[in-house]
């Protein structure tokens, strides 16, 4: 680079962080895949599906914006996907609803809590799995090697 600094090391660090959040998303999804067939484990299925979707969203948001909150406040931003994200409104709505469902699954002790979910646990899992695929494709389209 004539007269400029070579910042490729920085890009590599960004890609590494993105990759690690996608890996974490995959790990949560793997747990959800083992729980989804067990109806009594609906709470854990919803929770792990949310964390898979959350970390996939986080990887995209970090790549596009260069930062995410490293506190619990970041969960409030789960649906804030970039404007050019495929089917942005649909995925944003799903992420926001899944966050609410995760709160129900994790904190509501009543047996009727399951009936208040926006999606059945299996559908939450399947959509989280689809979102992870969409996030990977989006990031590949931006030049991220996954």
Largest sheet: none
- The CATH superfamily turns out to be Nucleotidyltransferases  domain 2
How many distinct domains? 1
Strand content: under 5%
Spatial gap, N to C terminus = 26 Å
- Radius of gyration, rounded? 17 Å
What string gives the helices and strands in order? HHHH
pLDDT under 50 segments (min length 5)?
none
Description of the structure:
The chain has helices at residues 8-35, 42-65, 88-107, 121-141. The protein is elongated, with a radius of gyration of 17 Å. It is built from four helices and no strands. It has a single domain, classed as Four Helix Bundle (Hemerythrin (Met), subunit A), CATH 1.20.120. The mean pLDDT is 94. Helix 2 (42-65) crosses helix 3 (88-107). Helices cover 64% and strands 0% of the residues. It is an all-alpha fold.
Write a concise keyword list for the protein shown above.
Four Helix Bundle (Hemerythrin (Met), subunit A); mainly alpha; 146 residues
Topology:
Layout: H1 8-35, H2 42-65, H3 88-107, H4 121-141
Could you give a short description of this structure?
This protein has 146 residues and is mainly α. It contains four helices and no strands. Helix 1 runs antiparallel to helix 2 (42-65) and helix 1 runs antiparallel to helix 4 (121-141).
């Amino acid at each position: 680079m004539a007269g400029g600094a070579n910042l490729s090391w920085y890009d590599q660090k960004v890609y590494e962080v993105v990759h690690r959040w996608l890996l974490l998303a995959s790990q949560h999804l793997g747990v959800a895949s083992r729980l989804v067939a067990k109806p009594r484990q609906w709470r854990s299925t919803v929770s792990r599906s949310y964390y898979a979707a959350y970390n996939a969203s986080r990887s995209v948001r970090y790549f596009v914006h260069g930062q995410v909150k490293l506190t619990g406040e970041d969960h409030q931003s789960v649906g804030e996907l970039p404007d050019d994200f495929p089917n942005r409104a649909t995925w944003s709505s799903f992420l926001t609803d899944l966050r609410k469902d995760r709160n129900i699954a994790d904190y509501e002790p009543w047996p009727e809590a399951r009936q208040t979910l926006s999606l059945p646990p299996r559908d939450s899992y399947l959509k989280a799995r689809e979102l992870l695929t969409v996030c990977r494709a989006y990031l590949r389209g931006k030049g991220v090697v996954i």
